[in-house]
Amino acid sequence: MMLFLMDVWDSVRGFMATGGDVLWLVAVVLFLMWVLMLERFWYLNWIAPKQHLAIIASWEAREETTSWYAHRIREAWVSQAKQDMNARMLMIKTLVALCPMIGLLGTVTGMITVFDVMAVQGTSNARMMAAGISQATMPTMAGMVAALSGVFFSTRLDAKMRISLERLKDSLPHH
């Protein structure tokens, strides 16, 4: 098992080395994005249902649910639940949008490396230029893959939040 982990770590280090320093920035943003998405997933599946049950119980415990005042209370509770569910979604969406931009930063820095090699060594040193081209393409690819995974799962989280909020609204009848 330890040998397997060492092989995996060597593979990751090799991949990160071919992509340059910008690839580490993509990895940090990706890690942060996934931590936030997992936290939202955990919240939606374990915390929000309990909070919604408490809101429903409070609504059902009210003697009067038909007045204008009662409707405003209902709207406030639903609004608070929506705000709690959307707590870190803006940050997640920002990180998703940032991933391709960081990948493009890697493209620019890799191409600067290529041009630097061309200026110093001339165009005849293909091996030196290949390192710069690798530094240009790897972060771009990694940024796009990170963004795609983030788009997919953040869209799923949004849909799950909308469904959960609609169920809460349906559970709070107002006549």
From TrEMBL:
Instruction: Give TM regions.
Output: 22-43, 95-120, 140-159
The answer on whether this UniProt entry bears the keyword Ribonucleoprotein reads no
The Gene Ontology CC terms held by the record are: plasma membrane
MotA/TolQ/ExbB proton channel domain spans which residues? 62-167
Specify the protein's topology with respect to the membrane. Multi-pass membrane protein
Primary localization: membrane
Its name, as the record gives it, is: MotA/TolQ/ExbB proton channel
Q: Origin organism of this chain?
A: Shewanella amazonensis (strain ATCC BAA-1098 / SB2B)
The compartments listed are: Cell membrane; Membrane
Q: Which Pfam family, any one of them, does this sequence belong to?
A: MotA_ExbB
Q: Which family does it belong to?
A: Belongs to the exbB/tolQ family.
Keywords of this protein's UniProt record, alphabetized? Cell membrane, Membrane, Protein transport, Transmembrane, Transmembrane helix, Transport
InterPro entries with a match to the protein in the record: ExbB/TolQ_transport, MotA_ExbB_proton_chnl
GO BP terms in the entry:
protein import
